[in-house]
């Protein structure tokens, strides 16, 4: 056999090498790759989503259990004060004003009545009902002034006075930079006088299921105010606040000049021009 034939017989070609050599094993999958494939990935994803969704709910339920349930209702109540005067931005002529008292009514026109707001003073009755599971303390109260606009100076309707039964009496001065609940020293207008901060040295205990009634006299400053009440509570070593009512109150200060002024005459039960106006 020649040399060239012996060399070719001893050396396999490239195709034979590729066929005879066993294929390499595939590289092992990483843990992440394993989790990203097959049913284990689905299970892990479901568990993660379920736990993530459950955590906020658990926190929410725990928070609700920590804070006792308190019910509070605040509404305007003219019996709290002795001045029922109201004002509207409209210029109501004398003939229209007289018709308002037809049939023994004070404001017989619903459209005009809907546009009236209290002026100078505003009475509010606040009823707070305690938790049925534990005692809660009322440790503070203040007016939150949400919006201030110019005083209303259209038509003033003055009427009053008339009083009512009293409970816990506090007052807010809306022109104060810090309108915290204060003692009412003099409740008769125009000499309304407020004293010290009511909750500065005391609190009101709400026993289980007990209700407290606060009669609030609110004094307007030289603007029109949109406001609500912040009630500060304490129990279990924690403090929190609630706000009432859901729809804020409105009250206007006294204008230096009105387009028209009327006062209610209790004799004939009708509106007359205000004396000297």
Roughly what is the average pLDDT, rounded to an integer? 81
Oligomer: single chain
Number of strands: 15
Query: How far apart lie the N and C ends?
Result: 143 Å
What percentage of amino acids are in beta strands?
35-45%
Q: What is the tally of helical segments?
A: 6
Commentary on this structure:
The protein has 277 residues and is α+β, with helices and mostly antiparallel strands. It contains six helices and 15 strands. The chain has helices spanning 3-10, 14-20, 31-35, 38-66, 94-100, 110-114, and strands spanning 71-76, 86-88, 117-119, 121-129, 136-150, 155-158, 168-173, 182-186, 193-197, 204-206, 211-219, 223-235, 238-252, 260-265, 270-273. It has a nine-stranded mixed β-sheet with strand order 10-5-12-13-3-2-6-14-15, covered by helices on one side. The longest helix is centred in the N-terminal third of the chain and has 29 residues, at 38-66.
Descriptive key words:
alpha+beta, 9-stranded mixed β-sheet, 6 helices, 38% strand, disordered N terminus
Q: Secondary-structure map with pairings?
A:
Elements: H1 3-10, H2 14-20, H3 31-35, H4 38-66, E1 71-76, E2 86-88, H5 94-100, H6 110-114, E3 117-119, E4 121-129, E5 136-150, E6 155-158, E7 168-173, E8 182-186, E9 193-197, E10 204-206, E11 211-219, E12 223-235, E13 238-252, E14 260-265, E15 270-273
Q: Can I get a quick summary?
A:
With 277 residues, the protein is of the alpha+beta class. It is built from 6 helices and 15 strands.
């Amino acid at each position: 056999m020649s040399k060239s034939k012996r060399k070719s017989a001893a050396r396999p070609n490239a195709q034979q090498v590729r066929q005879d050599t066993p294929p390499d094993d595939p590289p092992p999958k990483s843990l992440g790759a394993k989790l990203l494939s097959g049913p284990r990935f689905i299970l892990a994803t479901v568990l993660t989503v379920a736990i993530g969704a459950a955590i906020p709910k658990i926190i929410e339920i725990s928070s609700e259990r920590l804070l006792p349930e308190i019910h509070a209702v605040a509404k305007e109540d003219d019996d709290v004060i002795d001045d029922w005067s109201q004002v509207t931005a409209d210029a109501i002529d004398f003939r229209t004003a007289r018709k308002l008292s037809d049939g023994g009514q004070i404001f017989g026109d619903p459209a005009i009545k809907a546009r009236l707001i209290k002026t100078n003073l505003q009475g509010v009755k606040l009823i707070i009902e305690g938790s049925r599971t534990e005692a809660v303390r009322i440790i503070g109260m203040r007016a939150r002034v949400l919006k201030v606009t110019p005083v209303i100076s259209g038509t003033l309707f003055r009427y009053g006075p008339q009083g009512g039964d009293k409970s816990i009496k506090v007052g807010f001065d809306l022109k104060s930079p810090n309108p915290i609940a204060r003692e009412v020293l003099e409740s008769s207008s125009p000499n309304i006088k407020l004293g010290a901060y009511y909750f500065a040295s005391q609190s009101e205990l709400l026993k289980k299921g007990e209700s407290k009634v606060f009669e609030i006299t609110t004094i307007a400053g030289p603007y029109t105010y949109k406001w609500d009440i912040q009630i500060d509570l304490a129990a279990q070593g924690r403090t929190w606040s609630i706000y009432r009512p859901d729809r804020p109150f409105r009250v206007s200060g006294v204008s230096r000049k009105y387009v028209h002024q009327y006062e209610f005459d209790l004799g004939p039960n009708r509106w007359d021009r205000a004396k000297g106006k």
